[in-house]
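How it folds:
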Amino acid sequence: MFSKFEPYRIKTVEPIPLTTRENRQKYLEEVAFNPNCLKANQVTIDLMSDSGTNALSCKQWSAMMQADESYAGADSFYTFETTVKKITGFPFIVPVHQGRAAEKILFKVILSETQVAYSNGFFDTNRVHILQNKVKAINIDTEAESCDFMGNIDCRKLEEMLAKDDQKVGVVVMTITNGEKGGWPVSIANIKEVAAICRKHNVLFYADACRFAENSWFIKTRENGFRDKTPSQIALEMFNEFDGCIISAKKDGICNIGGVFATRQRDVFEKFSQECILAEGHITYGGLAGRDLEAIAVGLTEALDEHYLQHRIEMVQEFGRMLELNGATILEPGGHAIFVDADKALPHIPRNQHPAWALTCAIYVEGGIRAFEYGNIKFGYKDENGKELYRHPEFVRLAISRRVYTMSHLKYVAEVFGKVIQNASKVRGLTIVRSPSFLRLFTIEMKEV
């Protein structure tokens, strides 16, 4: 069996910042032990996010050079629109500057106060935008402890909840892949069953489809009847079940900025368009330059390439195995990231000293690696008196940028984890010094215990 390799050649290179352990300790103290506030030139391997951190292809750069920068009705918009229509099948398309702009506008125009929204796993900005409309956001994830599609929604529970009072349900959102649940995929069978339930109860069914291409690959390789279909064919079959979708082009658009709103509902499109003009700009540019629209059109197509997807998913899976060999306990790998169990890595640190946050700090000091806390700082549960609750498991997310790092970079990351875990007793917990009211992990200030 031949060795696996990246299905591309490297034409342009970017130097990686190299720092000393002493300097990294100083940098971390200067930002109040919040790795999210570090300068990029202080980070050696950056696995904080796979959003907008991708490497563009030669075809994308070429398309950008030919972009039309007209204010309205630019040729670049129609290139973008044609590509999105071909991939999704939706007739009404609006570009936005990124996915969270689409979700903010969408939830504003389709939801009303006192309603409820359900999902297999709301992304954090999804949840905040829904809550800002005074709507409850409730996850109904799968009960399966282990299966090929652990990102699924529990259809029995969904049916029960809709049967109680479907008039109060504003929307069901299917996140694909389920980023809040390990980047796990959703099956087409589950999507079709949820769509049927929503139609029965006359409830809107939308997709947060920022990783639709990765989800299509999991369906192709795991779900019966799809082995001989292309990722493009599978994606179209998925989208056919929804009333519309939002897409962050910073993920499976393989771009650095941009997003998509697409729907088959003219009334929603018209309301969305008016809000877009107010907040994002003309509906044929949506806060983007023509060159961004061109890059997205190419990136969405490249994201569905079978060779790219096979390498992408296998790279993440192999990274997970390397981490396990170095002593880490991980969630079942999904499509875009590995989630490391911080409770197991740092068993001496109690929940109220935030072991996942401590682990992100430790791997930065040890090896210059920036990761993302997926624990009780991110999810921020509090009781009615404002007292901290510790309901969420403590994980560290390592998100893999598309076409940026090689396996040797990820091998280094795994080795750094191994050293931190071997010397776990030296890692100290942290307490909160200052915290904003929501999405606090981006600007929170901490101190070591």
Observations:
- The CA atoms of residues 131 and 140 lie 17 Å apart.
- The chain has a mean pLDDT of 94.
- The chain is about 40% helix and 15% strand.
